[in-house]
Amino acid sequence: CGSTSNTDAGGLFMWMSLIGHSLRQEIMKWNGWGYVDSKFQFNKKGQAEFTGKRYRLSGMVMPALKEWFESTFGASLQHKTPASAIPNSSAVQPPILNEAFVEDLKSTGIPFSQDAEDRVFRAHGHCLHEIFALREGKVGRVPDMVVWPSNHNDVVKIVELACKHNVCLIPYGGGTSVSSALECPPEETRTIVSVDTSQMNRILWIDEKNLTAHVEAGIVGQELERLLNESGYCTGHEPDSMEFSSLGGWVATRASGMKKNIYGNIEDLVVHIRMVTPQGVIEKSCQGPRMSTGPDIHHFILGSEGTLGVVTEVTMKIRPMPEYQKYGSVVFPNFEQGVACLRELTLITNVFAGHALKPQKFYITKFKGFDPNRLCVATLLFEGDRERVLQHEKQVYDIAAKFGGLAAGEDNGQRGYMLTFVIAYLRDLGMDYYVIGESFETSVPWDRVLDICRNVKERIIRECKERGVQFPPLSTCRVTQTYDAGACVYFYFAFNYRGLSDPVHVYEQVEHAARDEILANGGSLSHHHGVGKLRKEWMRETVSRVGMGMLKSVKDYVDPGNIFGNRNLL
Amino acid sequence: MASEAVYSHRDPMLKKRDDFEDILEERRNCSDLRYALKCYTPVVYKGLTPCKAGVLKNMVLQSDQLHYVINQVSKETGKAPEDVQEEASAILEEMAHRMQLSTVRFFAFTLCKVFKTLFRSICVNEEGIQRLQQAIQEHPVVLLPSHRSYMDFLLMSYILFTYDLALPVIAAGMDFMGMKIVGEMLRMSGAFFIRRSFGGDKLYWAVFSEYVKTILKNGLAPVEFFLEGTRSRTAKSLTPKLGLLNIVMDPFLKGEVFDINVVPVSISYERILEETLYARELLGVPKPKESTSGLFKARRVLSEDYGSIHVYFGQPVSVRSLAEGRVNRCQFNLTPRHIPKRPSDDVHSFVNAAAYRLVRAQEENMVLKPWVLLASLLLQNHHQDLDQDRAAGPERGMGLDELTEEALWLRDVCRQYGAFLHWPDHVPPSEVVSSSLDLHRGLVRISEGRVRLAVEHAGPSGPGVHPGAGPEEQLLNQAVVVLSCASYRNQALHVFLRPALLASAMHIATSSNKQEVFNSFSFLRNMFSNEFILCPGATMQDFEEACFLLVKTGVLQITEQEVLSTHRGHRTLAFLTRMMDPFLQGYQVICMFLCEEASEALTEKTFIPAVRGFMVKQLLSGRLRYTEVLSSDLQKNALAALLRLGAVLKTKGADQTTLKVNRVMVNSLEDTLGGKLPTQKAAVARL
């Protein structure tokens, strides 16, 4: 996932949904991450640069990137693998149309499309295999129609018609899924309708007394923050994908943001959820901040991954915008010390957002007395009133010092945050030169963090070797979230696939083995990416047979006809 | 339990083994001192963070596991945690190694001298050394040598030093510590000492296991121990002990290391230093306590020729690949890993299966010398002489030509069974035989062109009795020679074991019906699974392997229904059944003893002397032929088998454990061993 924090991008651009739905495709890549105008490329001198004007990095030349790229992957600028052009409509299967449904839908006046490009655009998320196929011009089963409801009532109508005509609905928010959740089940013979929520993007009200905002679920992260900021508020929910991912998607996948230590994860931020299901609308009757009314029905919705209905409106907690914000960074002699320090910090204070990572050499600054092959940088962000920020900052640096950590400045901190969003763009660059890769995440108790990092990285390297990958892979990791009882760990895995006949298959086998290794080392199936179809096979062992039965019985009651038939999760 | 994954049967002829290099050769030509002082810079584990012995002790004492157990013990006993901590510290002090390069160099120098005097050569497979070097770099390494002599671990360290490999820390029995100076010197060359039994002592176990794991996890040194737990006095591999293997596999199963390489090492001695010592021990002459002065008395040993030693470093086995699909590592997710837990059933059966596989890997790469074949033949001949009452006559023994011919025949059989036989093909067979006999001249007599065991037979009241030696003492003297000889035959037992079980099964089965033969095979295999290394749950594979070998060599014809011997197969079958006979008879006699003689007050402690007394009577009266059955090893194994089968039950009393005999069952087992009863399905199921 890529990200930018609001300060990076703030005010530079407007979100296209204000202008009209079809424009989304014009400013976003159809076969890669992010905006059409923003990408890494090697210029005529062979130096890497980042195009466009949207990001702080835009227009910058990065001489070190080429060397890093070549030495890490054994890649060469001579060996290119350019993406193929957008397939024309003849390459896309003609839509399976349920005429009666189309007729009824027309009478509601809700906009819809059967255009091939609209359909292909909503047939995928950002898993490696999905993007790789698109770059090769291969298109599988795609939705047969796209509809754009503009409010809750439109969704109610669509779901009613879908039930009436037995049509399959797949909710579509920001399209940033990395769990194959948006893939159309190839065996689905009914009409598949992609329900694009992008037009449901308004803040319906802000309640300053209770510090809540009632928002339509199709709004994307950066737009929500921008609009709230205009009123002096923020949610503080900043997942790496916040430029593109939607509120409904966050709810449906149990999203997590990088400032969760201060503001909480999505499940802590929602006060009220409204979802349209085949059985009707589900919501609570009041907005009490906490209730003891049996199991929390929000938790059937959170993480349901589009299998139960469409989330249409959400009441969310908001906070006044922080008076003062300060980035920071600490450099540690090694990853072990960095992790130990983050744990200590988490137990003592929750006033920062932090990552610990082993940096790659293309952006590293040299630090005196540290072995560049082992050192580890933690990036920090403090928010609040100025005095307390400075006080916390000092406290944090004092603790870090106990673990051999040295303050490494605001710049490095800010750069670290910036890096989290460019990584996704970097993958597209790699794919131009025979390099494929992806990141995947897990959550794990503190005492397992170092073990899981070592074992999963080693497993990846070993599996690559066994599967005939000719070049040593990039296999690295970072700690991105901290909790009292553990942490979220990201793994980055990429390799040069020259000489392999089916690189995606090899990639998938290695990722599969890596996930097995994660589970064997006490890691979870997912911290926030979700299960989708990619990780379904491990669900039973993850939640137990009885747990599976509970989830199934909810699905059976809420959606007996499997209208929400994306086949995620179960 | 499925055992396919750890044990596969293929044509043993196809086994490929490395060549050997003699490491003493160079020593005979250059300075030992220079060798001992050579530059020693071994490659180390890639993830190693080096630390000193003191730091290691602190790591152990400060570990979460030990803290947990200290608190637990403190709560249970009411002692202050600090006191328990002190105890732990003392245990560690008593246990820990203090490896010092200077001591290692001293040993290297001394051992050079000793080895050159005792042995003609010490042969090592250098490819195995290279594989080990690679393995040490990649993952923590566990060395598992076979254990036949005190010499084993000094020899191991000597070889590793010679090849500039990381020196192991070695789990040694506490009895060594009794050898004051030597004990300390062993400690300084990497030995750490563990008490022989510490059953319920939680604290001891915690310190011990944490100590081993800390060394292993951090890759500080290869950990070496003996899977068989103790020296095999019979040269048969012993049933593996699982305690230490459990400990060393734990860090992998709990994800604390990516993998562990386990390296089986097979050490074969052409002549065992402790030869007669072992025989006496097996016969109940108490084991001399390990003492320094005892070791020096062994100086006499130095003047003798002990032939050569072969040390074969086997293929490193990855614990990760062993465990693949057999252990669900997620089982450790729900409790903190530092809280000690009994191994779950799947872990237990995995470790057990792995242990058997590793012992078999040791067996497979044991080098067999021609003498092993001669000993087997001479023993059988000796018993035939007894049978035909010519033990004292001039026709006793075998003609040298006859022996040579038989040995050549057996050599070929051996090779077909995949044995790692070192028979010098370029030397005339008669010379091979005579030089083998010469090396073991203490065990054989050659006169007038005939060879026999060096056993003076008098018969119950015959002539030739040494004045002053009673018949029992005489019997024991004979048994010493027989048992010594048997220990050489035993070196080849693993080669013949499966075909021999089949041959005996055919012998005791009531018909040649295949199912019936299989039932008998299964019965014998079950009966003898404490006696020989037979992988748990692999009855079918063992049966198939035996059938495969005997059909391949033209001994048997096997149809859908029947197992039939061929005409030319008779010689092999006879040899194989004779090989098993002493064991069959031994177990039968023990059953007989339990049915006829055992009193109500029989205890675990009195079992061996009582059985021995019974056997001596039987032997002296001539009703029993095999003096070999006097081996306490066989007696213990038989008892263990009977206990396992429920034919004998243990009842723990206040101060002793009594044995309760199920006479009906023991009787039926005895009959079945003698071939009187069909091994019906029901009988097998009951076992």
TrEMBL record, chain A:
GO terms for cellular component: peroxisomal membrane. One of its GO terms (biological process) is ether lipid biosynthetic process. One of its GO terms (molecular function) is FAD binding. The gene is agps. Its main location: membrane. FAD binds at residues 171-177, 253-256, 305-311. Keywords: Acetylation, FAD, Flavoprotein, Lipid biosynthesis, Lipid metabolism, Membrane, Peroxisome, Phosphoprotein, Transferase, Transit peptide. Its EC number is 2.5.1.26. InterPro entries: Alkyl-DHAP_Synthase (IPR025650), FAD-bd_oxidored_4_C (IPR004113), FAD-bd_PCMH (IPR016166), FAD-bd_PCMH-like_sf (IPR036318), FAD-bd_PCMH_sub1 (IPR016167), FAD-bd_PCMH_sub2 (IPR016169), FAD-linked_Oxase-like_C (IPR016164), Oxid_FAD_bind_N (IPR006094). The active site is at 490 (proton donor/acceptor). SUPFAM superfamilies: FAD-binding/transporter-associated domain-like, FAD-linked oxidases, C-terminal domain. This is Alkylglycerone-phosphate synthase. Pathway: Glycerolipid metabolism; ether lipid biosynthesis; Lipid metabolism. Its cofactor is FAD.
